[in-house]
Protein 1
Amino acid sequence: MLNAKKAVERLWVFDLDGPLMMTGELYEKALTGMARVILEIFGGSISKQEILTVQNEIDKAMLREINPGNGKPYLFHKSRFPLSLVRTYKFFCRKIGKKFIKSTAWRLSRIGDRVFDECEYEMIVRSQVLPLFRFLKGKGDKVIILTKGADDVQFGKKKPLQNLGIMDYCDDFIVVPDAKDEMLKKIKETNKAIRYYCVGDTYFEDVLPGMDVGYFGIHIPYEFNWKERGKSEEIETCRDKKRSIAFKDISQIKQHFKMLEKTAKLKGA
């Protein structure tokens, strides 16, 4: 991690998936493909929404399953998403009483694997990222990307950022396997700045942990965020308005830069 010898004006920590890359679209395609396959098999006995709800519950539960190879939770291991699609299919086989077909399971695994196709990544980088990062670096600010997930998956997403020139304006790219709390604290402790900002699409995991250690929070809701889907009004109601702001996309950081600076200064971030 890069350490600053003297304080910069501002330090920005951006979440990757959602604010900078439309990763949710890849998962949405996979989930739609899974639902289509399962509906072909079970017909009108279940609905697409029921399939998606079951898959979401299975996916969340799988995060904490223990890997017998190392005794630690699997978390976001690359194999887990395709497996959750297969387990969703198996769930409905048991519920409805149909035979589990291995060729169908293989088909679902293939659908899930496409989420990690690095050829897709460059196409889902948001067009606003490069001009925003260039603008922030032009102000003399420090810009860091902090993302949660498996190393082999997340570092694969760094390549298109390099290809597009975005990493030329980014000081660090950090991957953590689970919660960001400790890393956000460490970044703040090892990088001197007058003000700190954290930007993310998951309020309770990206934004609030930063706010709790002195960052000003910028929440950018994302329609394909599986953890916040259907909860946008609820989250906005409980969002700490004194220490954060909500934007529709990252371009608003540049558009409202002066207002954001004034607001963060007043709030002591």
Note: The two ends are 22 Å apart (CA to CA).
Protein 2
Amino acid sequence: MDYGKFKYEAALKARESRKNQTQTIVKEIKLRPKIDPHDYGTKKGHVERFLKAGDKVKVTIMFRGREQSRPELGFRLLQRLAGDVEELGFVEAQPKQDGRNMIMVIGPHRKKSETKAHTPPATQNRSVPSPRAAAAPQEGPEPVESEPAADDAVVPGPA
């Protein structure tokens, strides 16, 4: 058997197997326990965008100073975030305290390859009207809508 041919076929097999693999990407969002409602909405929007793209999200709450004595605030915030994005993803790793941080991992419901397959291309099948077609006058008489006139009604004529 030819060794060059063997190496070539092995390379083809390896390339085909890599084609079906997807890389798991973990995005991270960092929060603080005392977060403003608008800031929370912004961070929640980022989490939703990551989950729609098919990526996992690691949500980290950073405690500083006396905040460390109130970990239930961070736990409540993570539960609220998980409830707000439950239609896009599910909690893979429950919130747990890790030193000064509390960490939770949210994964998407659909796989990344399925997400890409269901997303329609934005620029495909768009027809742009020609500027000449819009400027050209239509030929032929315009259709006139006629209504039956009442016996006593006056029908206005051309002035």
Note: The mean pLDDT is 81.
Protein 3
Amino acid sequence: MCICGHFTILNTLHQQIKILSNVTTGYQQPRRANLKQDKHNIAIFDTFKTRKNRFTGEAKRQRGIIAHLATEQSPEFRTRTSIAHVIARKQGILWQNIYSGIFRDLDEALIPSGVIKEGGRLPLRRGPRALQLEGVPFYELTETGLLVASSIEEIGIEREKILEKYLASVPIHDHSERTIFEGLLLLVKTAPSFAFKIINEYIYAYSSGFIDNITPLDVKILRSVISKQIGIEKELIEAFINMKPHQKDVVTNFFKEIS
């Protein structure tokens, strides 16, 4: 959608931005050092200290695991070995070199944090008898995992569908929640980059250990997490709404030319 198209929805979005930026909770970020003793944090946003634009190996593995489980339907291709093969192929390395890392990511981070769960077991025809009896586990995303998956850019256009499906399924208890969820659903369709910015900030707070749970999506926590992150957008929308018609044309033409 061109930038002029985005401006046609500014009046509708103004109320959503106003509600999102009105902090009504006493949310404070706890000390991360204490949380790491009690909570298994996921590393999907971790970057190198000296290269903030590059994900760490752990972050790339975990993002790859979540992206694969979000898009693969067959249990046969959702085992540890299958996941290792898929991610290794994308990274151009041997699957044996990444298997132990994936095993650790699942058992020490993604499963304990509630992002992934065991979906069942596949029978084995060969190998040790104990494994034949127990079968090989395959994995699936939890409700939390589906919301986390919507922040993984590697999934592509499919993550918009994931987020839309999740938001449409969340129970609504009051007018404020309805306004925010309807606003997010509209943003996913009309301004997806902004919608994902909001969701990513919420999930980042979870992955960093600042909040314990992200599902069901808590509007009060969402508001407190992102209120300071959307200041520029809020300023632009409020200014645009209050502009005279010819001033709106000037701003619209500005964005047309500069983008």
Note: The first strand starts at residue 116 and ends at 122.
Protein 4
Amino acid sequence: MFAALLGAVRADIDRQIGWAKHEVKRQTRYTALIGILAGVAALATLGAIVVGLIALHSWLAMQIGPFVAHGVIGGGLLLLALVLFALAFIRRRPRLVATAPAASRAACGFPWEAATRELRQSL
């Protein structure tokens, strides 16, 4: 009797292990696909930015001259790089919250303090 039960348990465990292996493979393929698509999207974005800068330079070169266009595009790229660099290193600091004693917090409008205290006393 126990041999049949043990065999059924082993078969179920083997089935679950097979399912888990298949699920890990499926999720790995999905993650790889998402990573590849994100990389392609990043390259497409970079290409669109380059084409836009070339078009802006061509337009500025016709309007005000090629050397001034170089300066405007270069200055804009430098400004963009500085802003991105600054944003990368700005860290949000958490707000400091003053903690008051439980009695004053309950008096200030925190109703759960009184309810918690009553629950503790009833236990």
Note: Residues 8-91 form one domain.
